[in-house]
UniProtKB/TrEMBL annotation:
Keyword field: Hydrolase, Protease
GO biological process: proteolysis
TM ranges: none
Record's protein name: S16 family serine protease
Coiled-coil intervals: none
Highest taxon, organism lineage: Bacteria
E.C. numbers: 3.4.21.-
Enzyme class per UniProt: hydrolase
Gene3D superfamilies: 3.30.230.10
């Protein structure tokens, strides 16, 4: 027969597994990534010494203002993220804790993930060029668009690539710049028929945009609430669902006429 334990002894025995679990959680890597605002790049200009958008086969405009694509910077797919890292990131306003599978494809090696992100970027660039030329009614057999953006993967720059091509070829459609001379930032995937898709991490991207001088941020409409939850002061959100809608919103902003959507 087992001896009867006093209440303090019983509590101590029961607490031992809990303490062991907490200790393990502190030191065992967790399936999360900690992200922060990343770099931005003006797609109308150069990035790391190379022109981001190069167009041949059609006249190209001189542009003013900036169209800045935005990124987040996350801990690597093979990084060890501890409970302390998660807690710190959870309460920080300039960081976010995200499931690792939401940032990187699950079950892949670092090299496979790099190849996957590079392929997504290539597909995004192709779709961005097709969407822009289709919007402008330009024959893509006569016009060649080359897009270069070093050290950036994934599809989230698609919308800004398309807008950059439109601005370089047509501006606002009546001789002015699509940006109106402003620094415009944004994010969003793009399909070949001009539909804008959600990307994730928009709260951090708005911080990167404001840090680098943007006053307007184009956000996929489905992510309005997330983008507005901790919106930096001085940054205006403009929700979009299509390339045409994004162009129309920027033209309305530039001319001070028409309806500009808001979150």
């Amino acid at each position: 027969m087992l001896p009867r334990l006093s209440r303090p002894q019983a509590l101590t025995v029961c607490a031992l597994p809990v303490v062991a679990l907490i200790a393990a959680a502190v030191f065992v890597p967790l399936p999360f990534s900690v992200a922060q605002p990343g770099m931005t790049a003006n797609v109308l200009g150069e990035n790391k010494g190379a022109q981001v958008i190069t167009i041949s086969g059609a006249p190209v405009r001189e542009t003013s203002g900036q169209l800045r694509m935005t990124t987040i910077e996350a801990t690597g797919p093979d990084a060890n993220v501890s409970l302390e890292d998660v807690i710190d990131g959870w309460f920080a306003t300039d960081r976010a804790v995200m499931p690792r599978d939401a940032v990187y494809p699950s079950g892949n090696s670092v090299k496979e993930i790099e190849r996957h992100n590079a392929e997504q970027m290539r597909q995004s660039q192709d779709a961005a060029a097709q969407a822009a030329l289709k919007y402008l009614g330009v024959d893509d057999k006569n016009v060649k668009v080359t897009l270069r953006l070093a050290d950036v993967g994934g599809p989230s720059a698609g919308l800004l690539f398309s807008l950059g091509i439109v601005d370089k070829l047509d501006g606002d459609g009546s001789g002015g710049d699509l940006t109106g001379g402003r620094t415009i930032a944004g994010t969003g995937t793009i399909t070949a028929d001009g539909k804008v898709g959600a990307v994730g991490g928009v709260g951090l991207k708005t911080q990167a945009a404001r840090r680098d001088g943007a006053t307007v941020f184009l956000v996929p409409k489905a992510e309005c609430a997330e983008a507005g939850s901790e919106l930096p002061k001085g940054l205006r959100l403009v929700p979009v669902t299509t390339l045409k809608g994004a162009v129309d919103a920027l033209v309305a902003l530039e001319k001070g006429k028409g309806s500009v959507p808001s979150c």
